[in-house]
Design brief:
nine-stranded mixed β-sheet, elongated, mainly beta, about 400 residues, 22 strands, single chain, about 10% helix
Length: about 400
């Protein structure tokens, strides 16, 4: 099942702008071509797969002793869409960088291969609404604090759902993932990474400076970036005397807001397992754009609604009930939303003169991390920081944790 609110298109945004008082005073047309560049910094376990696929064996090895301390990765996603057809098929474009980007002369954006989904129209199975039903139950918690708020947890019993049915109202419908450039809203579309080129930038890469995009589907795009990759997030957890868990992280100067979430669970034998899902939002808002890039204006609004934590906040308490229901281990995540850079050509004329736009370009930034929380895992991600919990207990027999993963201690 796919969520109808997974993405917001540029057409929707244009419609909203048209409703703004005074916007009708100046007519605008275009753009002929649109470009979108997503820039991310991943740390901790989130960095494991950022530069390529990681085998299950190596991932589990890092979970049980070879942790990802100091692991940082940088990633790019590039998309171009045009309302014109290519001058000579197939659709292709090249993004040319300055030498300090250390990405070679250019990165090639290619059109979708026949019969395959495109990067812009595909997304995480949890975030886009497709859902493979496990056995047992899902327990939903939300909000920072020592104790869970009233009405929690919301319990979803998978045995009471029809086969293949996604739990109702599980994913947020008010905070969709935003994509302005997609194959579905473009006559011509190309993206990077792709089957021909997918190597992500190194940590020595810098995006500051001039950028040029040239292809066979529209005018050449040129812009200059003053914003670079965001710094890495360094998150750690500590067990509190009241049974809750405290997450702490370093404050990032470019961040516009933060959101955290965590998964856990326990095996209940013949009854199946309990999957526990917690989010830092002060409302029942899970998935969607909270896992992705969001514009600063949207983040600012979500902060006023206490769905996103403000950029000044550097800690959040996972309630004791969440920890108790999750057993020995949880998988924690933290997303730092960042700034945006927007460009258009030609520049907007003064007064009421018509604005005929040739192209627009948007560059979005974020930083995110993942950490393992529990005895024997350290509760740590990023490049530094420590775990303030008590020393790990002596080893006992192995037991099952969330998703059937064997834990080192019970």
């Amino acid at each position: 099942m796919r969520s109808s609110l997974r993405f917001v298109s540029v057409a929707s945004i244009a419609a909203m702008l048209a409703a703004v008082p005074g916007s009708a005073q100046q007519k605008a047309s275009g753009p002929t071509e649109r470009y979108e560049m997503d820039v991310a910094t991943a740390s901790g376990f989130a960095a494991l797969g950022a530069g390529g696929r990681v085998g299950v064996g190596s991932a589990l090895g890092m979970m049980f002793g070879g942790g990802p301390d100091g692991k940082v990765a940088r990633t790019l996603e590039l998309r171009i869409g045009s309302n014109q057809g290519p001058t000579a098929p197939p659709v292709r474009a090249d993004h040319y960088f300055e030498p300090q980007a250390k990405l070679g002369k250019s990165l090639p954006l290619l059109g979708p291969e026949p019969g395959k989904s495109t990067p812009s129209d595909s997304s995480d199975s949890m975030a886009d609404g497709s859902f493979e039903r496990p056995k047992g139950r899902m327990l939903l918690f939300w909000g920072c604090g020592a104790k869970a708020g009233p009405g929690q947890p919301v319990v979803i019993d998978f045995s009471k759902l029809a086969a293949g049915q996604m739990p109702p109202n599980l994913f947020t419908s008010s905070i969709p993932r935003i994509r302005e450039v997609m194959a579905s809203n473009s006559r011509s579309y190309a993206a990077w990474p792709n089957s021909k080129s997918s190597k992500q930038p190194s940590t020595a890469s810098s995006l500051i400076g001039a950028h040029r995009i040239a292809g066979n589907v529209g005018p050449e795009i040129n812009f200059t970036l003053a914003q670079d990759y965001m710094p890495a997030l360094n998150a750690s957890t500590s067990q509190q005397a009241d049974g809750s868990l405290m997450i702490r992280w370093n404050q990032l100067a470019p961040a516009t807001g933060y959101v955290a979430w965590a998964f856990g669970g326990m095996d209940r034998g013949a009854q199946g397992g309990d999957v526990v899902w917690w989010t830092s939002s002060n409302a029942r808002e899970f998935g969607g754009g909270l896992w992705d890039w969001l514009p600063p204006s949207v983040v600012a609004n979500l902060i006023t609604r206490k769905i996103v934590m403000p950029p000044s906040q550097t800690s959040c308490q996972i309630p004791a009930e969440v920890k108790k229901a999750s057993g020995e281990m949880m998988i924690g995540n933290l997303n730092a939303f960042g700034p945006e850079a927007n460009f258009a050509y030609p520049p907007k004329p003064a007064g009421k003169a018509a604005w005929n736009i040739d192209w627009t370009a948007k560059v979005r930034f974020r930083s995110h991390t993942m950490l393992m929380i529990g005895d024997g895992f350290g509760g740590q991600s990023g490049s530094s920081g420590g775990n303030e919990s008590s020393p790990a207990p002596e080893k006992k027999k192995k037991c099952k944790g969330p998703f059937g993963i064997s834990l080192p201690t019970c």
